[in-house]
Amino acid sequence: MSSDWWHAMARWGRWGCCLGILLLGMLGSGCSLLPGFHTLPYSQKMAPLPPGTVCQVAVLPFVNESGFPLAGAIAGKVFASELQAEGDYLVSQEGDVLKVYQQLHILPAWPPTEEQMQIIANRLHAQLLITGIVLEMREDRGEHGTVNPRIIEEIQIRDGRNGQVLWTTFHRRQGTDYTKTMHFGTIHTVTGLSKQMAVEIINLWFKKGLAKCNESS
Amino acid sequence: MIDKGRVQENSQKRKGCSLLAILLLAVSCVLMPTIVLAAEPPVAVFPFQELDQGRNDANLAFAVDLAKRLAETGNKVIDSDAVMAFMANNRIRTVGSLETYRVAQARGELGADFVLLGTVTQRKEKPEASMGLALDLVRTSDARTIWSYCTSISTGEDRKPLGIGEPQTTAELEPLLIADVVKHWPWQRLHEVRQVRAINIDTASLSPKYVKPGEEIHAQVRLHASWTASNAPRVFFKTADHLYPAKVSADGSIYEGSWVAGKENGRFNVSLVLEWSVYGRTDSALLGSYLVDGTPPVLDVELRGVTMIDGKPVFSRHVKVVPHLLVHKILSRWRLGFYDESGTLVGDMDGNGVLPDGFIWQGTDTEGPVQNGNYRIEVEVWDRAGNEAKASKWVTLDRSKPQVDLAVSHTDEGVAVGLKNGGKIPLAFWRMEMWTKDGRLLTTTNGSQLPAKFDLKLAESEGENDLRGIVVFRDVLGNLIKKKVEDLIPDQKTEAKQKAREKAEAAAEKKKETGISERWVDEF
Known about the structure:
The complex is a heterodimer. By secondary structure, chain A is of the alpha/beta class. Chain A has helices at 3-29, 71-87, 94-103, 114-124, 190-208; strands at 42-45, 56-59, 63-64, 90-91, 128-141, 147-159, 165-174.
């Protein structure tokens, strides 16, 4: 073996080391390199939010168009829970929302009309209404007998005064999007993925100008 | 983690104590948090909703397990039997959520400062065991959710080195979920108090939703709340800046009111207004809205598939009736009717909602085809407020066959044949073929215009009685007729009938000769 060969190997070794670090970095950052990860959730403003502090919010039952049993109920529950937790809003009681649905003869699986939304918001004293559609909820098989959940959903912020859409947000994720290294970070439950997506959507709303409710108690 | 602050607080209060005593107290507080947290406000843990099987499934066992664990960690938890009795007494059939009114009831009847509502969002054993839980801690003083927590767990997310001690079933995941909830329990927010809202609507109705000006609207509301005579509010229905006093039922829970819609068209909101003049306080709740509409729909009817003859639409097979709403409006119902010249109804049909794009009438009633004549087709529509509009058109049904007039006259070289339309309906097409009795073709011609005349050459021995052929007429309505030439020439007509009779007699004779017995032959 000549010394040139050893020098070449050493040089390649350094390059290999750099490449390895880069690969580890990529693994560490995990899903951040996946296409579409940073572009989602995608939010579009149709109209400005009502002026002043927004505290009173009602989350209406999400519509399930996924075929997954009770996908709307799961995503809606989790979203309401995260909205309350993240923004400290005065989220209307689900029981009150369902009661108004009952009074207006609306089935929870069906979206109310704008006129009905206006009535719902007024009865619940809600400044904003949150509506959502679960377009896809699946539990695919992952590696080693695990579950890889997939969810596509669209969430709207509506004006309680007229039911019109103010902001609409589209989001799509699967459990493996959050894999960091090996199996770490992967989300295996539809509830966990719903929660993660809800947090991402709500944080995006905050970035785009939705203020948290300042009332602390 | 939760108790560190409390530990520090307590240790600061105990000035003058030795370091050892403080340390011992700190250790004892960490090991027995119940001593410090025993004065927590009472929490009622309601049975959890279980979304695994359906929207209305309940999970009592998990709720009881969590309640026990919360009690062990220092919370004052109301007995689950008392919670179940409260649900039974108040006929609460739903789990996972409560109305504001029920939350306030729980405060009064159970003495709960907080209610914990939960939903098991998922529970699966295969392919990997997984569970999800969403919790809401609701303060009963103002029915506000002060803490929401959502968590989930699966065997895939709780991997252990070499798989030792890894949970395999949901039963093994449950304690992990409970531990997670207890870890995040909102100790600091359990002492916040607020006031309840004034109006709690149980049921509300407003009818009708669409009215004409001057019609009456009726509203009825049932409230959860009731007041004593001294502090009862004045109750009104408010619409279009007018207040209409509500009548209260004997038990004080139902309020009713009626008023007449104004002349102005438009949508009007109706609110329930509660007024406590003594306190100078007014509260209101939107009940719904009604639409005043005094404008009838604007309707027109178009007839398609007809032919205009002498300025009148005529058809023979079918006519398409196309109604047009000239101004878009939502309809409640429609009706289509057919009347003859005397005004007698020939047939009709009706429906609710959207007016069909068109109707096809084949000139029939329930008993079959109707007679030729003039008919009035009428379309009526009603909008949601009951405003009516109608439009009608006359149409003529004519199924009569075209009349063929054929005239034959002698010429020097043979005959001249004249052909003309004997009916009123213009022809769309005609065709004539003629040949001699011996089969020599004389002419084949067609066209759309009549009258027409043809000179035909005949042999000396041939006359008009030797002419044979066929004439086809089809009018613009589609009515068709085919005629034999021999039937159209008077002399031949009688001759042809004679021949047909002879032919029939010959056929009957031949049949007899074949010896077919009219009696059944058993031996056959």
